[in-house]
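User: Could you check the structure of this?
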Amino acid sequence: MSAQAVDTRARPLEACPAAFAVVLTRTADKAQKNMDKPLRVLIRDALLRIASMPERMGEALTKPLTGVYSHHVTYKGKE
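Assistant: Sure, the predicted structure tokens are below.
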């Protein structure tokens, strides 16, 4: 298992009793500020659900991304 660098400038999405912590990088935080508020809320809620049960949310990807899950949200009829 390899160690991953953690951006110490990243901010926690929200305090929650989740199995995993969700942290937004500075880039993701900046990008989400340009989104419609309903879309930001939709993404935040999806991230918090994923953090509470990541194995049950989304679709497991295959090689070379084994162990990675994909999750899509739909907003205004677009994915």
